[in-house]
Design brief:
By secondary structure, this protein is of the alpha/beta class. It is built from 16 helices and 29 strands.
Length: 549
């Protein structure tokens, strides 16, 4: 059995002290931790590995094995991973793919059983997981928890199917993740009392404190679209034992730059005690989800990292089960072989420009408009004057009111159309088959011809993010043939390709930080206030289509 030792300043988070030590690893475990004399000169700081406590791997546009290759460079050794996205497309087969592919690399993916597939009945998804399916998943050792219970109305009204899923998790001793944006007061108390243990959707400190007082753990989310760190980081001062960090959704270009280590650096820069920060980043997820991840104790799995300092958290080495998986900014996880089978569901034909036409209403000039908010999943609902040409409502790029469409990708069906503000395109169109939660094709554009070209490129490749620029006649796509959500190619190359198309979308005029990520949430009906599904414009407050709200 192989053995090696590492000398560094050991950061003992539970006891809040730092001291030079020699850590010996035998096989996959830490066999001894020996303190060294205080004046011993050692370099770096030895920490338990970082954990992303809620992430949809699919949103990285990478299959799990490729995600791992990038994440370990930043000291991430494990994730709490909700395979909700692939489950909405491919059902149980999608979850199986994620588990099997994750097992091909030295990384600790901890998958959950998706609780809401489909997310709502107001959209077309590719699969259904009922309570019996969810129970079968929860009975598996690889499944650590019940994933985010987005159907909080179902919890509050004690929907039998919803309550059966929660009861199965509780019976098996597995935690239940929450998802309840804006829920406060008595409703929040009842939601938590039903057994919901976490929430990553808080966007104000007041909301988070309301939930904390009822015993819920709060996940501070900072991803590529939703960014709540600045609003919630102060909670670490007084509530460190009940806080975790997560990304939720992390695009590949962002993952290349950093992960949970970036949140640690930002928190310390705000003057927050480093031990409080590391409690959230390294310790709390392991304890809450009963993860098989080491916490830098004798006998633990040898999962640890070495940071250059406790200010910038540049990671010089990452070990998982005693294996050096990254060092000095380079991944040591080899490029995995291409999966033998790629799961997917795409069964729609190419569209024509006339499919996207929107007849003007006869009785009013005003139209409902979605207002996208940069860095947030929530939207505003506006009532603005529409522009009519030849009896049709058209985009108003001069007023930043553009057409948004959702195309059913599972069967041939009429296109749903509406209008949106704050995407900012001055010409052309962007489209994506990453469209939470059912992952139909969502597109925004200045004219129907450009929208049609962008959508058809996605259909042709059976998934991807695409763009059409009418000024050059050129189109681009990053193909995502795994579920229409992910690529099995080298993660660094996918990140580079994504960076290029992201820049191209901004060249079309978008001022959003991440246009494609924001676009992907415009069909997410469970987040207020106004969204578009393949079945029509949806009011998230009344939880009904606009014409029925």
């Amino acid at each position: 059995m192989s053995s090696f030792s590492v000398k560094a300043n050991l950061v003992d988070i539970p006891n809040r002290r730092i001291y030079p030590a020699e850590v010996t690893v035998t096989g996959t475990q830490i066999s001894s931790i020996q303190p060294l004399p205080d004046n011993t000169a050692v370099k770096g700081y030895l920490l338990p590995g970082f954990i992303d406590s809620h992430v949809h791997i699919e949103s990285s546009m990478l299959i799990p094995s490729q995600f791992a290759r990038l994440a370990v460079v930043h000291g991430t050794v494990a994730t709490i991973s909700d395979p909700h996205e692939i489950a909405n497309v491919c059902g149980m087969a999608g979850v199986e793919f994620m588990i099997d592919n994750g097992n091909t690399v030295p990384f600790k993916f901890n998958f959950g059983a998706p609780s809401c597939v489909p997310a709502t009945v107001f959209e077309t998804a590719g699969a259904t997981l009922d309570a019996a399916d969810v129970t079968r998943l929860l009975e598996r050792s690889e499944i650590r928890y019940l994933s985010e219970m987005m159907n909080f109305p179902g919890v509050l009204h004690q929907n039998p199917e919803v309550m059966e899923k929660i009861a199965a998790a509780q019976r098996l001793g597995k935690p239940v993740d929450g998802h309840a944006p804006g829920l406060r007061g008595e409703d929040a108390r009842r939601y938590i009392a039903a057994g919901i243990s976490t929430d990553h959707e808080c966007f104000t400190e007041e909301e988070a404190l309301d939930k904390l007082q009822h015993g819920m753990k709060i996940l501070i989310r900072e991803g590529s679209a939703a960014r709540n760190f600045d609003a919630l980081a102060g909670l670490l001062n007084d509530h460190a034992d009940h806080i975790m960090f997560c990304s939720d959704d992390k695009h590949p270009d962002s993952l290349v730059l950093g992960h949970i280590n970036q949140l640690c650096a930002r928190a310390v820069a705000r003057g927050i005690d480093v031990f409080n920060v590391l409690q959230a980043a390294c310790i709390n997820p392991v304890l809450h989800y009963k993860m098989n991840v080491g916490l830098l104790k004798e006998g633990d799995p040898a999962d640890f990292i070495i940071a250059e300092d406790l200010v910038n958290f540049n990671i010089t080495a990452t070990y998982i089960d005693g294996q050096l998986v990254a060092s000095e900014g380079k991944t040591h996880i080899a490029l995995p072989a291409q999966p033998e089978e790629l799961v997917n569901q795409f069964d729609c034909a190419p569209r024509k420009p006339e499919d996207f036409r929107t007849a003007a209403p006869a009785d009013t000039k005003d139209i409902h408009v979605i207002e996208a908010l940069d860095g947030q999943l929530i939207t505003n609902k506006l009532l603005l004057e529409g522009r009519v040409q030849n009896g049709e409502l058209v985009s108003q790029p001069d007023n930043d009111i553009l057409k948004i469409v959702v195309v059913n990708r599972y069967k041939q069906a009429p296109v749903a159309t509406a209008f949106i503000r704050n995407i900012g395109l001055k010409r052309g169109a962007i489209a994506s088959s990453v469209a939470h939660d059912s992952h139909n094709i969502v597109a925004v554009g200045v004219d129907d011809e450009s929208i049609c070209k962008a959508v058809n490129l996605v259909i042709e490749r059976k998934g991807g993010v695409s763009l059409h620029d009418p000024s050059t006649g050129e189109s681009q796509i990053v193909a995502l043939p795994v579920g229409g959500l992910m690529s099995a190619e080298d993660g660094y190359r996918v990140a580079e390709a994504y960076s290029l198309i992201d820049k191209a979308s901004k060249d079309l005029g978008s001022t959003l930080g991440s246009p494609f990520m924001t676009l992907s949430f415009m069909a997410l009906l469970v987040i207020p206030h106004l969204k578009l599904s393949d079945l029509g414009l949806f009011d998230g407050d009344g939880f009904a289509f606009v014409d029925k709200a």
